[in-house]
Design brief:
Length: about 80
């Protein structure tokens, strides 16, 4: 797990069933999955799912920024 912000970490992985990659937000204190950003290789779009009733907006903003950087494929020359 990679540290995102105090109290939260992220885990990145691929999902062959949904044909894409995800970045999960995990509560470091409880180990609970809090949110997920998913990048679809099929549609080239990102979606976010939030699994906690209340989540500070600044945490969501930081998660989205990290996902935009970490998830889409890049061309390496």
């Amino acid at each position: 797990m990679s540290k995102l912000i105090e109290g939260y970490g992220t885990q990145r992985g691929s999902d062959i069933h949904r044909d894409g990659m995800y970045l999960e937000l995990v509560d470091e204190n409880t180990g609970d999955l809090v949110a997920e950003v998913f990048y679809s290789d099929t549609t080239h779009m990102m979606t976010i799912s939030i699994f906690q009733q209340e989540l500070p907006l600044h945490v969501v903003e930081i998660l989205i920024k990290r996902a935009k950087h970490d998830l889409p494929p890049t061309n390496v020359a």
